[in-house]
Write a structure and sequence with these properties.
Strand order of the largest sheet of chain B: 3-4-2-1-5-6-7
Order of helices and strands of chain B: EHEEEHEHEHEEEEHEHEHEHEH
CATH topology of the largest domain in chain A: Rossmann fold
CATH class of the largest domain in chain B: Alpha Beta
Strand content of chain B: 15-25%
Low-confidence stretches of chain B: none
Structural class of chain A: alpha+beta
Mean pLDDT of chain A: 93
CATH architecture of the largest domain in chain A: 3-Layer(aba) Sandwich
CATH architecture of the largest domain in chain B: 3-Layer(aba) Sandwich
Number of domains of chain B: 2
Number of domains of chain A: 3
CATH topology of the largest domain in chain B: Rossmann fold
Oligomer: heterodimer
Helix content of chain A: 25-40%
Distance between the termini of chain B: 20 Å
Largest sheet of chain B: 7 strands, mixed
Largest interface: A-B, 56 and 63 residues
Number of helices of chain B: 9
Shape of chain A: elongated
Number of strands of chain A: 19
CATH superfamily of the largest domain in chain A: Succinyl-CoA synthetase domains
Shape of chain B: globular
Radius of gyration of chain B: 18 Å
CATH class of the largest domain in chain A: Alpha Beta
Mean pLDDT of chain B: 96
Helix content of chain B: 25-40%
Structural class of chain B: alpha/beta
Largest sheet of chain A: 6 strands, antiparallel
Chain lengths: 401, 296
């Protein structure tokens, strides 16, 4: 589950990580009020940022023609005007696709005087099964590009999960990033806070880009998380109740939210061949097979190991809501699952949804004869297949017809 | 001879009184596996299906029944504790079926397992099957949730991150008359107890395994690590398949571990590493057995 920048900063601040002062808001009036307070506190500039789950916000363009999802403002009035143009409108960034994302929340905060920028992230190192801190003095840029063009600029620090990040490790990391003097201790404290947030919140990733040294109004300097991105391990939400409440359904595709209500694992893609499969690996392999035979998968859909008739019906309804779909492939390897249950589900769903699209079904496994019988006796028009490859070939030719 | 388990392996089940654990314990008993004890704290003295005595703790269950392996069906919030209890009891093999264990719990479990003689398979896996010699492979050792009847006793090892793709491979082998020594589902989580490489090494050393099918998917670099070792060390023919060529980056494809992030963990990179190691990679999942037969 992904969090908004303002939510991520709230969590980080709880663990002692310095973030720019400010607040989220949902109206232009509130944006002005927050900005007024920041100006009164002596800040010369205020920044407003759209709160959507997408990178490239600054270069985004609103569908109403307004440019940019991040703005620097010198007056509260300016904040009010910009906020009015953004709130309630849809922004398109390089990551949202053409459909864009409606902006419901803005973060209004002090615009820091940035002295230098760094990158810091905490994530799981899958090779060692240990937490990993990745840091670079090349902050504020695309880290994947740095990894490719200048991998030596990225420092990697593995953490013993049973001990946690030790102060000496944090100090050494600060040194390695080129920090000196008093900044070593204060940066080490920030690193410890970021690691603590990652661990405590069951985060999959905490990414601070940029992590900055900023100049205070009085000329002193400090380290501050100027931007922040956090994603949370979905398996841990049962024990992260406060964080679970931060879920923003506006940020998730409508059909995917609908599918999750039925415990279906659905991901919408751009193609026209829908598929309904049991098991995540087999579902991926089915998409691959469709592509292999020249088609384009419309979705990933795993109905799980113990799908019921109701789930299969719901799955069909979700598939059919995608207007691009013009053929459907059902691929079931019934291990423990009874093939006849699936067959009954397919028949019920096809009848209930008055299915008119070509349907290719491949059933294999437990009680397969009864399942095939149910399908052939049902009178619904469908094409049967002997293997996954056969099924993929047939559905692709149907979709192209 | 197989790896990890054989038809005589005595197995206990943690979470035997849950509906999922109970159902699959019943199926394992019907398959002829030696399920000798169950564990549910507070239910000591009860008997599962008039056959399997239940104990409060793994230590007691292992001591009384002589079990050397455990199957874990405990719900996610309690699963890490169940694994650590089985490790503490000194079991040789722990197979965690549970799906949905928080990654942080598994990071701790994996760290605690360092230096322990216990081998962990899973979590979020279909389990381990060593087929038996009877009809429909009856009499084998089935730990987990795989369908027993699709197997056939033989000399091909199967290792996979995905349940249903394992069944595909096993069924194709069986239909082609090729039996299996042992089939191991290592699970779809980002922190697995055992990796492809761990299992491939066991197959490589097993005199009764002649060939291997290795099934992977997007996410992480476990397949690349296995391929690098195979290239220099593995004496046996290996066929493979990788799922997720069409998966979009940054999305979790059902399995918690199936995600391409930061350009890492793509199917293309895995397939290239496997082909470089001399592994016969199937073009579609329907050709996994065929890909192996070509090189046997």
């Amino acid at each position: 589950m992904n969090l908004h920048e303002y939510q991520a900063k709230q969590l980080l601040a709880q663990d002692g990580v310095e973030v720019p002062g400010g607040q989220p808001c949902t109206t232009a009036n509130d944006a002005r009020t927050i900005a007024e307070k920041l100006f009164n506190d002596g800040h010369e500039m205020v920044v407003i940022k759209v709160q959507i789950h997408s990178g490239g916000r600054g270069k985004g363009i609103f569908k109403n023609g307004f440019k940019g999802g991040v703005h620097l403002c010198k007056s509260a009035e300016d904040v009010y005007e910009k906020a009015s143009s953004m709130l309630g409108n849809t922004i398109v960034t390089k990551q949202t696709g053409e459909i864009g994302r409606q902006v419901n929340t803005l973060l209004v905060s002090s615009a820091e005087k940035i002295v230098s920028e760094f990158y810091l992230a905490v994530l799981l190192d899958r090779e060692s099964s240990q937490p990993l801190i990745m840091a670079s003095s090349e902050g504020g840029v695309d880290i994947e590009e740095v990894a490719e063009t200048n991998p030596e600029a990225i420092i990697k620090l593995k953490i013993d999960p049973l001990l946690g990040l030790q102060p000496f490790q944090a100090r050494n990391l600060a040194k390695a990033l080129g920090l000196s003097g008093k900044m070593i201790q204060s940066a080490a404290k920030i690193f410890a806070g970021i690691y603590k947030t990652w661990w405590k919140c069951d985060a999959s990733m905490v990414e601070i880009n940029p992590l900055c040294i900023v100049e205070n109004p009085d000329g002193t300097t400090k380290m501050s998380a100027v931007d922040a991105k956090i994603s949370i391990d979905g398996n841990a939400l049962y024990r992260q109740k406060k964080i679970a409440e931060m879920r923003d359904l506006n940020e998730e595709a409508e059909l995917e939210v609908e599918a999750s209500k039925f415990d279906l694992n659905y991901i919408k893609l751009d193609g026209n061949v829908a598929c309904l499969v049991n098991g995540a690996g087999l579902a991926m392999a089915t998409m691959d097979a469709i592509k292999h035979f020249g088609g384009d998968p419309a979705n990933f859909l795993d109905v799980g190991g113990g799908a019921t008739k109701e789930q299969v019906t719901a799955a069909f309804q979700i598939i059919l809501k995608d207007p691009n779909v013009n053929a459907i492939l059902v691929n079931i390897f019934g291990g423990i699952m009874n093939c006849n249950t699936i067959a009954e589900g397919v028949v019920a769903a096809a009848t209930e949804t008055k299915l008119s699209l070509p349907l290719v079904v491949r059933l294999e496994g437990n009680n397969v004869e009864a399942g095939r019988n149910t399908l052939s006796k049902s009178g619904i028009s469908l094409i049967t297949a002997d293997s996954l490859a056969d099924a993929a070939k047939k559905v692709v030719s149907q979709a192209a017809a | 001879m197989a790896i990890l388990v054989n038809p005589d392996t005595k197995v206990l089940v943690q979470g035997i009184t849950g509906s999922f654990g109970g159902r699959h314990t019943q199926l394992s008993l019907e398959y002829g596996s030696q399920i000798v004890a169950g564990v549910t704290p507070g239910k000591s003295g009860q008997v599962f299906e008039e056959k399997v005595p239940i104990f409060d703790s793994v230590k007691e269950a292992a001591k009384e029944s002589g079990a050397s392996a455990s199957a874990i069906f405990v719900p996610p919030p309690f699963a890490a504790d169940a694994i650590l209890e089985a490790v503490d009891a000194g079991l040789e093999l722990v197979v965690a079926i549970t799906e949905g264990i928080p990654v942080r719990d598994m990071i701790e479990v994996k760290a605690a397992l360092q230096g322990s003689p216990t081998r962990l398979i899973g979590p979020n896996c279909p389990g381990v099957v060593t087929p038996g010699a009877g009809d429909n492979s009856h009499g084998g050792c089935r730990i987990g949730i795989s369908p027993g009847y699709i197997h056939k006793s033989g000399d091909i090892g199967v290792v996979s991150r995905s349940g249903t793709l394992t069944y595909e491979a096993v069924w194709q082998l069986t239909c082609n008359g090729l039996g299996q020594s042992t089939c191991v589902g290592i699970g779809g989580d980002p922190v697995p107890g055992s990796t492809h490489l761990d299992i491939i090494k066991l197959f490589n050393d097993d005199p009764e395994t002649r060939g291997i099918i290795m099934i992977g998917e997007i996410g992480g670099s476990a397949e690349e690590e296995a391929a690098a070792w195979i290239k220099d060390n593995c004496k046996k023919p290996i066929a493979g398949f990788i799922a997720g060529t069409t998966a979009p980056p940054g999305r979790r494809m059902g399995h918690a571990g199936a995600i391409i992030s930061g350009g890492k963990g793509t199917a293309e990179a895995k397939i290239a590493a496997m082909e470089d190691a001399g592994i016969s990679v199937a073009e579609t999942p329907s050709q996994m057995a065929e890909a192996l037969i070509k090189i046997l």
